[in-house]
Amino acid sequence: MEKKLFLSFVFLVISFVTAASHNVPAIFSFGDSLFDAGNNHFNRNCTVQADFPPYGQNFFHHPTGRFTNGRTVVDFISQLLNIDIQKPYLEAEMEIFNGSRKDYPSNGLNFASAGSGVLNETNKNMGVMAIQDQLRLFINLIKQDRIDKNLVQQSMFFIESGSNDIFNYFLPVIDIKPDPEAFVQDMLVEVQKLVDEIYKLGARRIALFSLGPVGCVPARVNLPEAPISKCYGKMNKIVKRYNAGLESLVKDMPIKYPGTIGVYGAIYNIVQLLRAKPGRYGFTNTSGACCGDGTLGGIAQCGTQNYTMCENPNKFLFWDYFHPTEHSYKLIAKDLWSGKRSRIRPYNLKDLANIALRS
């Protein structure tokens, strides 16, 4: 009898933890194309777009502005939290302007803009919203009382950016380049500023996500010094330096931002594991794009020019010349949600959602 009571108690505790992990009501995301839910589509001045077929074909069954064939990491985490997928900020703003909705959504907003970076000037000529612009939009909503401050305090904040800054650093059109270490420090300063600001606005659950191995994307074939048969080691070296800086920011959060719980998502490690053991995860190709043109499918964007497409995107790590497939995102999201410390630390996202905040 006592054993049955004990097992019942354990079951209740597990049930409570599982339920409690769904108490986060919203996600606010800042970043680039890996997170963008379609902001660029609603930005008429932006030339960085994925609002045409075959993008979105395998889940939404139409283009949504996401740079993949279906859902992104943020979408999967939202579903694991049992909340609706967030709208792009610019879509919600348009709906309020035309009267089709009254208030901004209570499940969060996606501010990410494909092509953007943590440095304000990255791809600015293409009309993207730099992470500083994304922050300003969020600040304005808070100042206008369009987002409840209690909602902000209970929500998760996702930050992922830097791939475009580092990739552009290796473009041959840039003649004068800062020292790599100074360049990375400039990037980290901007991330720190963003964290400072969202903390002041009430953010308490903050996740900084590392960059993946940018030197392995199929688009590297457009860089004169990059190898084709392997990843671009020089680029990945800078990526790892930047990622180490991000993790240091997370480690400093408990002291610098009292009451905040920060986590570091080691996406670089996760993707390298997928590449190292592709068969275990259902991949047959971890180097080329499912959809694209030219060498590794990396010469031109999916859906443009004379592109070709693979039969089964789930067999590919990369959907297009720069971005993972939905299958890859699902695997990454799973590790971020419930993975061990080699994937995300000091807590995974499920634990982050469950931890009680100090008042």
Question: In summary, what is this structure?
Answer:
The protein has helices spanning 2-20, 73-80, 89-97, 131-143, 149-154, 163-169, 180-200, 233-256, 267-276, 326-338, 349-354; strands at residues 27-31, 87-88, 108-110, 156-160, 205-209, 261-265, 285-289, 291-292, 308-309, 316-318, 344-345. It has 359 residues and is an alpha/beta fold.
Q: What would you call the shape?
A: globular
What would the CATH topology be?
Answer: Rossmann fold
User: What is the CA-based Rg, rounded?
Assistant: 20 Å
Major β-sheet strand ordering: 2-3-1-4-5-6-11
Structural class: alpha/beta
Order of helices and strands: HEHEHEHHEHHEHEHEEEEHEH
CATH architecture: 3-Layer(aba) Sandwich
Q: What is the CATH class name?
A: Alpha Beta
Strand content: 5-15%
Number of domains: 1
Work out the number of β strands.
11
Number of helices: 11
pLDDT < 50 runs, ≥5 residues: 1-21
Helix content: 25-40%
| Overall pLDDT | 93
What profile does the largest beta sheet have? 7 strands, mixed
**First-to-last CA distance:** 40 Å
What report would you give on this structure?
The protein has 359 residues and is of the alpha/beta class. The protein has a single domain, classed as Rossmann fold, CATH 3.40.50. Helix 4 packs parallel to helix 7, helix 7 packs parallel to helix 8 and helix 9 crosses helix 10. It is globular and about 50 Å long. It contains eleven helices and eleven strands. The longest helix has 24 residues. Strands 2-3-1-4-5-6-11 form a seven-stranded mixed sheet. Helices cover 38% and strands 11% of the residues. Strand 5, helix 8 and strand 6 form a beta-alpha-beta unit. The relative contact order is 0.13. Keywords: Signal. It comes from Thalictrum thalictroides (Rue-anemone). This is GDSL esterase/lipase. It holds the Pfam family Lipase_GDSL. Belongs to the 'GDSL' lipolytic enzyme family.
